[in-house]
Amino acid sequence: MRAETQSNIDKIRRSLDLLGQRMDLTTAKHRLEEFNARVEDPDLWNDPEKAQKLMRDRQVLLDKIGTYDAIKSGLEDNIGLIELGEEEGDSAIVAEAEAALSALVETAAAKELEALLNGEADANDSFLEINAGAGGTESCDWASMLARMYVRWAEKQGYEVDLQSGLLWRRGGGLNPPFIKSQGIMPMAG
User: Fold this and answer.
1) Which long-range contacts link 132-137 to residues 24+ away (Cβ below 8 Å)?
2) Residues 95, 79: Cα–Cα separation, whole Å
3) 3-class secondary-structure state, position 138
4) Rounded CA separation 77/103 (Å)
5) Can you tell me the distance from the alpha carbon of 116 to that of 111, in angstroms, rounded to the nearest whole number?
6) What are the residue ranges spanned by the domains of the chain?
7) pLDDT of residue 84
8) CB neighbours of residue 51 within 10 Å
9) Distance between CA atoms of residues 173 and 136, nearest Å
10) What is the tens place of the pLDDT at every residue in 142-159?
11) Does domain 126-183 have CATH number 2.30.110.10?
12) What's the distance, CA 60 to chain centroid?
């Protein structure tokens, strides 16, 4: 096995270790069983807010476990393919598995970053207010472009965006400062 491939395997394993620690893998399956038992309670929807929070928390945990399992199985499958290709002398299979591992390193690194930025308060809604400050029309136009950029990014990421007040664009200069609410869960299984 090449040194670069071994390095990729080590990186993926480190990412898996971090992902497992961040979601507390040892208890994750038990927590999922508890969520599933609570979901089956016929009185759950008597309190819709509580039910929605439970369903959201359950889905987040399901996504985390699914991501972890997908990366782990991808790693194991590609290691097996490399070993098989080396035994059979098939360099095409080895190259294909090494390429898949390289892609998996990127995926694992992205999920590791998401896990590191996934603290207790990170699932809360966010609010953004952009003020143009001094500078006249150009400053207002720039603030408007910035606000539209944030809104488009949030929508692309799957967040629900709600303009609380102000306008995103107003011709002829002048901008009522936009106050934007972004709702959603930072996806771990993106």
Assistant:
1) 132/175, 132/177, 136/173, 137/173, 137/174
2) 12
3) helix
4) 14
5) 9
6) 3-116, 126-183
7) 94
8) 16
9) 7
10) 877 888 898 888 888 888
11) no
12) 10
What is the value of pTM for the model shown? 0.67
Cα–Cα distance measured from residue 59 to residue 105, given in angstroms and rounded to the nearest whole number: 25
At 150 the pLDDT is: 87
How confident is the model at residue 163, as a pLDDT? Answer: 75
**Cβ contacts of residue 176 below 8 Å, gap of 6+?**
165, 166, 167, 170
Judge: domain 3-116, CATH 1.20.58.410.
Answer: yes
A 10 A CB-CB count for 124 gives 10
Nearest to 159 by CA among 144, 188, 181: 181
